[in-house]
Amino acid sequence: MKSQSLLEIVLSLGILATFLPAISILILEGYLSWIKTNQLLQAIFLAKEGIEASILIGQRNWGELSAGEHGLKLENGTWSFFGNEEEISFLKNGKRKILIEDIDPDHKKITSKVSFEDQKGQKEEISFFVYFTFWQK
User: Fold this and answer.
1) Which domain holds residue 91?
2) DSSP letters of 33-81?
3) If you write DSSP's letter for every residue of 81-112 in order, what string do you get?
4) In whole angstroms, what is the distance from residue 51 CA to residue 18 CA?
5) What is the total count of domains within the chain?
6) Which of 27, 36, 59, 70 is the 20 to 30 Å CA partner of 52?
7) Residue 130, φ and ψ in degrees, nearest 5
């Protein structure tokens, strides 16, 4: 009877030792995947926001859409370009950059890029672009 109980305990510990690391890895990878998905969703939102803010700036004053790299700032409910890029504090090494390219005097290509590092240190980048026309001429 004692040897049977001891055998059951040893067998149970062996099964536990086999499956516990696998279950722990699955839980950890699931958590890291959730974090990365959350970061990607935030980056997508910021990149789209960058496009929309740039369009608002261009609708307010076409002349502000100068070719080059820009950061954005929101002050008193009004978007404006500021510097070459902006830091995104809630993403690890997060940065948003707006690139404006002249197509011709009445057309611009606006690209919004958000870059960051995930939990494993891998670099990620989300980018959207739009062609914008000065239609008020």
Assistant:
1) 2-133
2) HHHHHHHHHHHHHHHHHHHHHHHHHHHH-GGG--SEEE-EEEETTEEEE
3) E-SS-EEETTSTTEEEEEEEEEEETTEEEEEE
4) 51
5) 1
6) 36
7) -150, 150
Could you report the per-residue pLDDT of 4-13, keeping only the tens digit for each? 687 788 888 8
User: Phi then psi for 119, rounded to 5 degrees?
Assistant: -60, -25
pLDDT at 137 over 70: no
CA 63 to chain centre: 29
- Sign of the C-alpha dihedral computed for residues 6, 9, 12 and 13 taken in this order: negative
| pTM of the complete model beyond 0.85 | no
Tens of pLDDT, residues 46-77: 999 999 999 999 999 999 999 999 999 999 99
Q: Which amino acid is at 112?
A: S
Taking alpha carbons only, the member of 64, 63, 54, 61 closest to residue 111 is: 54
- In order of 48, 50, 81, 108, the CA distances from 93 in angstroms are 19, 18, 20, 29
Nearest alpha carbon to residue 96 among 132, 49, 137: 49
